[in-house]
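I have been asked to look over a protein record a colleague put together. What it holds is a sequence and that sequence's fold in token form. Please read both lines and tell me whether the tokens look consistent with the sequence. I do not need a full report, just your reasoning and any doubts. This is what I was given:
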Amino acid sequence: PAYAEVVVAAGNVRGDQTFHYRIPDDFRKDLCQGQMVLVPFGSRQLYGIVVGLAEDSPVDETRDVLDRIGKSRVIDSEHLRLARWVAQHYGCPLFTAVELAAPPNLSRHLHTTYTTTGRVDKTNLLTGNDRRLLTVILEHGELSAPEIQSKVGKTAATRGLDRMVRVGYVNRHISLRFPEPAVERMAVGMPLPDGESTSAVFGRAHKQQELWEYLARVGVPVAVPDLMRSVSASGSVLKNLVDRRLVRIEHRWRLPYILAGPLDLGLRPQIEDDEAWSLLQSSMGNTPPEKVLVQGQELDRWCLYVSAINSEGDKGRQSIVVTPDAATAIEFSEWLAARSGLVVANSMKARTDAQRVALW
């Protein structure tokens, strides 16, 4: 398609208004719905999200998409349809609705740099600050706004950069850089060599044996600090086991919002009201599913909830649970993790930008 329908991150756009831009030939084949782009908007250059592709434009004159921001989509077609519905139903700007479904705090993860275009043939029309700004960018090739500000001052950089971009002396480049959560080291126990006994493998290395047996007994990766505290071992003990390939170290994101543990079969919820469960199953099987109000004791209701969630999980689907307060969120998420066998995420525990993006 020759044109992109874009929702622009501008505060003065109302309702579900979008704008059409011509797609340059050099990335026409690669641009897709849900991708971020840099576009001209009045005298400014703003980022936006492609919400549609078209062969024709509803307006005679269109401007070009300046650049793609990242190579992957930040929102899929299903969530775009949801965002359009939200904007129409509630009368909010479409970009506001799109941001709710896109990675959280999207604008924080945009990294802007500047390069010169090589067009400096009218320097006599520039101020001294503008010429100094161009010289700084020429000397370094590519700089971010904070780097430019540190060299020419905030006022000169802020006003000068926008002016230099507008007259075509400087190019603005925007990339999408998501932060990553902190990494933690996880220890995984490896099997003993075939036919070897623990006494033959470890001999008098009792601490090594104790650490290895602990990992074998737990059966899941254990954070290294937790492991060392559990067996009161030193780092050299773990290093020796790693060198002997009896323990493997994995590096994983530290995700405090994930609640995942072995399913406790003794805690499987028992539904006391078969009729209520039958009615709930019936409503879930309809298209679209019906809304159901569940009344009764808290434990009885929770048993129905977890049965419904397990039913959807068996179909490969995810479930979202909204609780009335923080205390209930903590209690129910832990209760659910022990009884569903599914990976449960408590979004309230995703506190940093990196964790929120990872959760998304």
Notes: Residues 47 and 278 are 49 Å apart (CA to CA). The longest helix spans residues 298-313. The chain has a mean pLDDT of 87.
